[in-house]
Structures are given as C-alpha cells and as structure tokens.
Amino acid sequence: MEKKVSASVINRLPRYYRYISEIEAGGIERISSKELSRRMNVTASQIRQDLNCFGGFGQQGYGYNIKFLKSSIEKILGLDRGYTAILVGAGNMGRTFAINTKFESRGFKLIGIFDSDPKKKGVKVGNHFIKSYSEIKQFISENKPQMAILAVPKESARGVAEELIGYGIKAFLNFSYTELSMAADDVTIENVHLSDSLMRLSYKIVERENNTEQVE
Amino acid sequence: MEKKVSASVINRLPRYYRYISEIEAGGIERISSKELSRRMNVTASQIRQDLNCFGGFGQQGYGYNIKFLKSSIEKILGLDRGYTAILVGAGNMGRTFAINTKFESRGFKLIGIFDSDPKKKGVKVGNHFIKSYSEIKQFISENKPQMAILAVPKESARGVAEELIGYGIKAFLNFSYTELSMAADDVTIENVHLSDSLMRLSYKIVERENNTEQVE
Predict the structure, then answer these.
(1) Mutation test of the interface with chain B: which of A92, A201, A213, choosing the one with the most B Cβ atoms within 10 A?
(2) Is B184 in contact with A3 (CB distance < 8 Å)?
(3) Among A75, A100, A127, where does a domain finish?
(4) Which of B13, B106, B200 is facing A11, going by the closest CB pair?
(5) Is residue B71 domain-shared with residue B114, that is, in the same domain?
(6) Disulfide engineering: A151 pairs with which of A14, A145, A175, B147, CB 3.0-4.6 Å?
(7) Is A78 within 8 Å of B206 when comparing Cβ atoms?
C-alpha cells in the first residue's frame, strides 16, 4: 500500500468489492481467478494485475480466498474505519441517494440529513428525520462526520462546501451538477455526474456501430 | 479513431466535454493546454496524451481551438448522432435522473418514461407524462430508441432488460442497483452504482490520512 496506485485501479476496486461481497453472501469461500474473471467479465490477467498493486491475494493453483480478499479490499478502501457521513440537501437526488445506498453494508454510517427548506424539517427520509440546515454547525462539532454528501442546487454548492470546510469537514461527495474543486490541499472532493454515464454509453454504441460497419 | 482507446481515456472524455462546453459558453475561443490543465486540475501532458488518442487537436504555441475541440469530442462520443432514450422506472432514481439530466445539451433526447405501477400513469415528470409499461413494445417499434435507462427494482432489472432486447433495444444505462451483463455480443450495458463513488471518496480519505501520518 506504500506506492501510488493508479486512478483506474481505484476506480475498479468498488466493483471488485461488490462482486466479492456477493460471492461471499453466496457461501463461496474460495474462487479461481478464471471463475472470478468470468463472473466479472474482466480478464484474469487484469484481475491479477489490479490486485497485485496491493500486494496480491491469490495463490497459484489455489485461487483467491474470498474472506481474506474481501477484508483486504475493505482495508484498502477504508471501509473498516467506520467513517460517518452527513447529507446536505434533501431534494430528489439527496433522497434517492439516502434511501438507496446501502451505507452500512458498505462500511459507512449516515448520521444526519440537512436541508435549508423549513418545510422539509422533520420529514422522514429512510430512517432519518430531516434537520434544519441551521443546526449543521453544532451537529458537526458534536458528531465530527468525516464526509459530507452534497446534493444541493448547483449555485449553492461552492458556498455550502466552503462553510462546511470551515466547520472541519474535509471530504465531499458532490452530486450538485457542478464540478467543485478547492484550493485547499487537505480537502478531498469526489464529483459525480450522472450524465457522464450516458455519454460513456453513447461512446460504446458508436464503437459498436463502427465495428459493425467494418465487419459487414 | 481506428485504434482501440483505453477505458480510462473514455472515462475522462465526458469530463473534458463538460469543461469545454462551459469554456465555450464563457465565450472563449482558444485555450492554452496550460490553462485547460489549470481549470481541469489535470496535468497538461495528461490532456495532450488523452486527446492524442483521437488524433490530437492542439497546435504548438497556439493551444486548443475550443469550438473544434468540442465538436471533435461530440463526434467521438456520438453526441452528434441524435440518439434517443427511454426511461423505464419512475421511482426516485428514475425521476431524479429524468429531471436533472440535461439530455438535450448532451446531445440526447428522452422520448418516453414508463412505469408498471398503474397509479403513476399520466403523472408528469419534467416534460413527460409517465406511460404504462404495457405500451412499451409498441412505443419501441414505432420510435426505435437507441437506449433504455433502467431504474427498476433490482429484482426486475434482468427480466426487463431481456424483454427490451427482444424488442430491439441494444444499449442500456442501468441504475437498478445490480450489475447486469448479457451474453449477447451486440448488447451494451453501462452499470452505474452510486455507492461506488462513496467508496472512492473513502479511499481518498485513507490515502490522505496515510500521507499525513508519514509527514508528521
């Protein structure tokens, strides 16, 4: 874990984690790299390469020990650290994320949902009651969450992020339809753009159409 | 565009596209690779490398022509092809995606929203009225959409995808909290898992904490 791991390996790790978790839930204790490769639709050599970045977990002729692999990926991704998160913004995007994300099974805990709209105060979302944004400063100082999930309007995103940084939050997951970046070196932001996935799909259609043209 | 482009470059292209679009909207006609690099928070050499995969668009000492760069990326991603999409599933996730995605400015057209819940029929989502899932076969045969966005319950995802493949759909954007893959070579699926972004953020926090430990 000492050397810098490439961004594409990091991008693939959550997917490994989801598959390994499912395989474990299915009661399987050990899997060959060939079988894992078939299930994940990734070449066996890619899997070996990716996992080798972190020291490798497989044994020749034995395959991967699922439990060990899972707990290793958990450590790499920090899912064993019990990080807590707050959600700011309980509009469509925020509610969808809060309701559908399996926080606990991914090693996180959502500890509060905030919105600046007084009409939303006290409304239930999943297991949470929306709190007023005016309570957020005190909440953060008392509960010290590691992450804030931003699902606020585009125009408010930067202001909210700067305010929360002032209260001590240093990691943001940003669903606010704008790209946030902060000059501060110790602040980490993961920007999520749902429409990017649409563009990637489009690229794949083009690629397929081009290939079909060549073949015909 | 003949050679195979790496997945990581493809993953970065939508982000390039968003930035270039914003820069164009700001009235800028030409940008140095240094300035583009500063705005995007990516090294200038990374940008050069990525864009060179598609033949390169910059000129030494001149920088990038924004309009040309934008239309080139549009061609690569197929955003100039007028692809149309239907959305299946008008729950939280589906509605959020339909309302918040700027389809048109990304070169797509959302032409129909379907749900199997009779209570949702006729309900307005953005500019659309939800249609009954029972109308989907005829709608597809008449309108021939290129893509289907799946935001259905996990358990229904595979069945719906198989049914739509039968009606001629060959590209899926899957928000159904399960990983879909199809044996058919001519079917393309882009699986989106929102919780993956949470795990990536977590990794970055771990990385930062490790670095801080080393420095202190």
Answers:
(1) A201
(2) no
(3) A75
(4) B200
(5) no
(6) A175
(7) yes
Could you tell me if B150 and B88 lie in one domain?
yes
Residue at A200 is within a domain: no
Looking at this predicted complex, what is its ipTM? 0.90
Residue B165: closest CA among B137, B132, B135, B131: B137
Residue B146 within any structural domain of the chain:
yes
Q: How confident is the model at residue A216 (pLDDT cuts 50, 70, 90)?
A: very low
Looking at the structure of chain B, the number of domains it has is 2
Phi/psi of residue B207, each to 5°?
-60, -45
The CATH code of the domain that includes A42 is 1.10.10.10
Q: How far does chain A reach from its first CA to its final CA, in angstroms?
A: 48
Provide, as residue numbers in chain A, all residues whose Cβ is less than 8 Å from the Cβ of B94: none
Structural domain containing residue B46 = 7-75
B214 within a domain of the structure (yes/no): no
Task: Kindly state whether residues B64 and B92 are assigned to the same domain.
Answer: no
Please give the average per-residue pLDDT across A192-211, as a whole number.
90
Q: Are A95 and A125 in contact (CB under 8 A)?
A: yes
pLDDT single digits (tens) B17-54: 999 998 999 999 998 888 888 888 888 888 888 887 77
Q: Do A203 and B77 touch (CB under 8 A)?
A: yes
Of A173, A181, A201, the CB nearest to B41: A181
| pLDDT tens per residue, range B113-134 | 999 999 999 999 999 999 999 9
d(CA B190, CA B180): 8
Residues 109-138 of A with CB under 8 A from B: none
Does one domain contain both B21 and B109?
A: no
Give the up-direction half-sphere exposure of residue B69: CA atoms within 13 A in the CB hemisphere: 31
Measure the CA–CA gap between B185 and A85, rounded to whole angstroms: 40
Q: Does residue B77 sit at the A interface (CB-CB below 8 Å)?
A: yes
Single pTM value for the model: 0.88
- At A136-152, the pLDDT tens digits run 999 999 999 999 999 99
Is residue B205 one of the residues assigned to a domain? Answer: no
